[in-house]
Amino acid sequence: MNAVAVHGVGTSHFGRVPGTDLVTLAWNAVSEALADAGPEPVDAVWVGTVFAPAGVAQRVLRAMGITRVPVVTVENACASGTTAFAEACEAVRSGRYGRVLALGLEQMSTAFDGAITPENTDPEGATGLALPALYAMAATRYLHDGAVTPAQLAAVSVKNHAHALHNPRAQYSGRYTVDEVLASRMIADPLTLLQCCPTSDGAAAAVVGPATGGPREVGVRGVALRSGAPWGRRSPHVWGYDIVHETAADALAAAGLHAATDVDVVEVHDAFTIGEIVTTEALGLVAPGEGGKAAETGVTALGGAHPVNPSGGLLSRGHPLGATGLAQLAEIVWQLRGEAGGRQVEGARIGLVETMGGGVSALDGNACVVAVLEAP
Amino acid sequence: MTVVDPRPRVVVAPDGAPHVAGVRCQACAEPVAYPWPACPECGGPVVAAEFGPDGVVWSATVVRIPVAGRTPPYTLAYVDLDDGPRVLAHVDGDSAPAVGTRVRLLAGAPDPHVEVIG
What we know:
Chain A is of the alpha/beta class. Helix content of chain A is about 35%, strand content about 20%. Chain A has a single domain (about 5-110, about 195-375), classed as Peroxisomal Thiolase, Chain A, domain 1 (3-Layer(aba) Sandwich). Chain A contains 12 helices and 11 strands. In chain A, the strands form 2 sheets. A 9-stranded mixed beta sheet of chain A has the order 3-2-4-7-1-8-11-10-9. In chain A, α1 packs across α2 (about 55-60) and α8 (about 240-255) crosses α9 (about 275-285). Chain A is globular, with a radius of gyration of 19 Å. The two termini of chain A are about 20 Å apart. The mean pLDDT of chain A is about 95. Chain B is mainly beta. Chain B has a single domain (about 15-115), classed as CATH 2.40.50.840. Chain B is about 0% helix and about 45% strand. Chain B contains no helices and 9 strands. Chain B has strands spanning about 10, 20-25, 30, 45-50, 55-65, 75-80, 85-90, 100-105, 115. In chain B, strands 5-6-7-9-8 form a 5-stranded mixed beta barrel. In chain B, strands 1, 2, 3 and 4 form a 4-stranded antiparallel beta sheet that branches. Chain B is globular, with a radius of gyration of 15 Å. Chain B starts with 8 loop residues before the first strand and ends with a strand. The model of chain B has no long low-confidence stretch (mean pLDDT about 95). The chains are: A alpha/beta, B mainly beta. The interface of A and B includes residues 141, 145, 186, 187 and 190 of A.
C-alpha cells in the first residue's frame, strides 16, 4: 500500500455566475491544481457533482485535453466532491493508479431559484420539506433542549462571514452583528437568511498521488466514507449527528489520532448555522451541548483553541454542492502549507475536512466523508 | 406519466381512526411508515402494520420561502407516532407547535396532516 499525498489543489472563484459555463469554472480549478502539482499527467479522474447534466465530466475534461483516461462520475449529495477525493486517495493507496485528479463542480444558479427541495419521489420532498426546513427541525430541537440559544446560532454566521473577509475566493463576507443575523428574513423558523448558505456556482480540484516527501505535499493520514443509518426515534440525536460521529471515528482511527481535539484546523459542513454546531459536537471537537457556546465565545474562531471554517465555510465562501468538499480540502491544504494569508491558523500541522450530504427520507444523511491531513 | 405517491399512506381503520399504513420488522420490531420490502434498520422481514393516530411532536418549523406547489408560510412537524415511526406531517396554522405537543393524525388530506390535541 502506498502512502498518499495531495500534490496540488485549485478552485474557481465562488459566486452566482449563471453566465459562466462549467467548462470555464472547471478549468479555473483544474489548471490551478495541475500547476500546483507539477507537470506530470494524471492517470484517472474522479468527478463529483449532484445536479450537472449527464456527461458533464467528459465534457469539461475534453476542453482541457484530459482524455483517454478512466473518468468516473460520483454523486453523493453535498459530499460528492469529497467522495471523489476519497476514491482518488484509495486508487493511489492501492496502487491502481499513480496520479489521480479529483474534481468537484456545480452550477446551482441555473438549477434552482431558491432552496433545494429533496427529490419529490421521496416522502420528504413530496411533503414540502425544503432543505432549510430539515436543518430548522434540528435547530428547533436544540433550542427546546437548551443545547443552543438563538444568539449562539447567529454567532456561527457572524464568525464565518468575518473569516471570509480574508478569503478572496469567497462569495460573501462581512462584519455582521448577532442582532443583524437574527433580524434578517426568516427562512424556516428559527433559521434566518444569514444562517443559510447561498446559491453558488464553482469548481474545486485536487491532484492526489503517492507521497514522495516533497516540500509542498500534504499527507493524507486517513479518509472515511459512510452512508447514513435509518434516522428516527431510535437515535437520541438530531438529524445528521450520528453519521458524522461515526465517520469521524473511522477517519481519526485511520489517521492514528485519539480525538478530533488533536487537530489544529477544521473545515466542516455549515450549510446552515445549526449544522456547524451539531458537527463540532459530533466530531468531538467540543462536548455535546457546547457547540453553540464555542461559537459564541470564540473557541471556534480564528485565534481560538479549535478554529472552524477559516475559509468562511459554506455560509460565506459559498456552497456549489459537488465542489464544496474539494473547496474545503483546498482550504485545509493551504492552511497546512502556511499559505492561507490573513486567515492562516498559525502553526497548523493537522487538519480535518468534514462534508455531509443529505436529502434521502428516513436516512441520517446520504453520505459523510471525513479526511485527516498532515502538513509537509 | 403516472407517478407513485411516496408519502405515508393514511388509511381509516375499522374503529374510524386514521392510521399510517406501513410495516414492522419481524426481527428487530422497527416501525416503518412506508410499504418497503425489508427493514431499513436490519434488512429483516416485515409485515404490514398500522400506526397512530396519536403521537408527539419531535420538532417543528414554519417554512416561509416559496417551495414548488406550496404556499408559504406552512408548518411542518416531525411526529413520533405512539409505538410507531417518526413521520413528517403538516400542521394547521403559521406557528410551530412546541416540541412534546400531543397531536393526532387527520384523515382525508393528501399530505400526512396532524392536529394538536393538547
